Predict the 3D structure of the following.
Amino acid sequence: MMRARTATVLAGSAILVLSLAGCDKPNPGASVFSGTTSQFQRASCWSFTGEAIDPAACAKDVVGSALEGARIPKIPVVPGQVIGISVDPVVADEGWVPQVNSQNLTQSPITSTYFRFTYPEFQSVPEEGILLQIVAGKEGASRGVWFYRLMPS
């Protein structure tokens, strides 16, 4: 009886250790809002060690994955509409910059968890959409990247 109980406890402990070893810490998240649509996702690339990543290489990997069926969240927008971005506090601590078609929307990194901008009224949204990137980290030392596609509404 004692052996059976010991064997059960050891087997249960082994399963617990193996299941915990398979758990990865999730990448920080970001949400983009426009009108009545909101899309949340984890960072496409994130450095837990604090070492810089290459956003261009990450973009290439994400685009390649998108061609293979991975999903880049789509946000419908109308010219003149407000677009909001919310990031996890760890991202705000690092500083982050929103980019539309690789153009920074701010001159310096944002250190708050929320930012909003108005999509220009004079600029239509192309049918294929526009790439919105969120790049976390200091200039030259990017730590994470998120990708969204702004689509015509």
